[in-house]
Amino acid sequence: MTTSYVKTNRVFTPLRKYAWLFVPLAAFGGLWYPKLGLLIIPLMLTLMIMGFFKGKYWCGNYCPHGSLFDFIIMPVSKFTKIPLFMKHKLLAALVLTWFMYTLISRLIEAFAQFGSATFLDQLGYAFVFNYFIVTVVGSALALTISPRTWCSFCPMSTFESFTYKLGKLLRANKRTDEKITMTNTDDCRACGKCSRVCPMQLAPYQEFSENNQFDSEACIRCSTCVANCPAGILTLANKATALQIKEDALAKNANNKEVTGIREKETRYDSASGL
Fold this sequence. Notes:
Layout: H1 14-18, H2 22-32, H3 40-54, H4 57-61, H5 64-73, H6 89-111, H7 119-144, H8 155-169, E1 179-182, H9 193-197, H10 224-228, E2 234-237, H11 239-273
Helix pairs in contact: 2-7, 3-8, 5-7, 6-7
């Protein structure tokens, strides 16, 4: 069955809405004033650190390119299914290899000029070049396929996956790692709306864990499914909160069954008494 994807509003905060303004500043402004590329350095460091603690939360809430794809391009996007090969780890590895090769090559050239008047320009341009390519290719894919197509194999997203795995290995992100969580699986209608609105074209309703959490590392924690769930049973929560939500739901269900049982007994008693 072919899934029909829905163009739904993904803008939840002013930062997420206007972060795209950084893209023309760095990607195009940097071509004339290369030092602007130096602004990309703290951006890269921030997303890797955030990836360590919160997975791909950066991608769904702060990424300038993500803001560009969702807010500017989505209304005119062709909005079709992202090809499976674009979600393959091999493609992500190849793109990451290209990214690192071009970046390191230009950084070596820049540091060869360390101390000269052109050093900062060359250092900044090393980042501008890659950022410009990402903007052009990512925008083209967003227009012709789906807004978040580039994000399926983005090298920065791959970096986030690496740091996230490290955070899990060290058990350093148990409290900070928030995932899409279902409050009560019994209330899920399996309508597939969460899949139809997901920017990454994932299917949360089919993959919730025993803790009622969506564990896919491809999830960008954008909360689009939370805002669009017809049953209103999705939220973003860490593991401890998810377990508490599950226990509360089980206790509520048990209480409801107990109340229902008492009412049924009362009904049978009244019938037997002729009342």
